[in-house]
Design a protein that fits this description.
Largest sheet: 2 strands, parallel
Number of domains: 2
Helix content: over 70%
Shape: globular
Strand order of the largest sheet: 1-2
Structural class: mainly alpha
Number of helices: 9
Radius of gyration: 22 Å
Distance between the termini: 49 Å
Strand content: under 5%
Length: about 260
């Protein structure tokens, strides 16, 4: 992420890529959202980033090496049941809680901050339920809730996917503060909802259930597109209204 020369042509993009500058945010957007939030809530950001990284790595290991497939006395089994398992549990819980705090304190979110805070709490809740089942010896339910927990956090993958597709059609949100805030609300809610729904699709035990959850996923994509179109309509109307107000102001000044 870099703030500086905006993309006005393909050559600008190529020049920035040569410098290792993959994405260019306008200075207004960067100044409004990134540095102020980071400096005000630095510890929360640091804990969240560190724990999210550990959660992702240990999550992949845990999901690939379930207890029923690992020998009880094996070295891999010990790491799974002890080190990796406890590290995953700790980092998952902290990631969910810090995600909620970051959402509520975010400068780049509107009403969606409450949705995002709820998703963070859901991540922490699914972890608690998963740990409850493994402590009681119910491996099957533990595995199901572990998948729910992992998919809730992995919604960030869908966020980046939706944002990348959006950027293919329009990059104006990179330079305009209001456009970025509105885009961020839509993409974050859609992406994390898609992550949770994908988890349920993965856990579905019948073809009909899978088809149902697949329909929900398609519905989320359609709803995201419609929300994006509506956002641009609103922005267009607001720009027209502002131009009318400016013209009226000029006329009144002349009088």
């Amino acid at each position: 992420m870099y703030t500086g020369k905006p993309f006005k042509s393909l050559q600008d993009a190529i020049d920035n890529l040569k410098k290792g500058q993959v994405a260019t945010f306008g200075k207004k957007v960067y100044k409004e959202f990134f540095f102020p939030s980071f400096h005000r809530y630095r510890k929360i950001y640091e804990f969240h980033t560190l724990c999210a990284g550990c959660w992702l790595l240990t999550g992949v290991f845990n999901l690939r090496n379930q207890p029923q497939f690992v020998g009880r006395q094996s070295t891999a089994g010990w790491y799974h049941r002890r080190l990796s398992g406890y590290l995953y549990a700790t980092t998952s819980f902290v990631t969910g809680i810090t995600a909620s705090l970051m959402s509520l304190k975010s400068d780049s979110l509107g009403i969606a901050r409450y949705n995002m805070a709820g998703y963070g709490l859901w991540m922490a809740y699914t972890l608690v339920v998963a740990m409850k089942h493994i402590l009681s010896g119910d491996i099957v339910l533990h595995k199901r809730w572990m998948i729910r927990n992992f998919s809730s956090g992995a919604g960030s993958i869908f966020v980046r996917l939706f944002a990348a597709v959006w950027a293919m059609f329009d990059l104006s949100f990179m330079s305009d503060v209001d456009t970025y805030r509105r885009m961020n609300n839509i993409v974050l809610v859609a992406g994390f909802t898609q992550g949770i729904v994908f988890g349920e699709y993965w856990l579905a035990t019948s073809i009909n259930k899978r088809r149902g959850w697949l329909s929900v996923q398609i519905g989320i994509v359609v709803a995201t597109v419609m929300a994006a179109k509506n956002m641009y309509r609103e922005l267009s109307k607001e720009k027209k209204m502002n131009k009318v107000k400016e013209k009226k102001g000029v006329v009144e000044l002349k009088r």
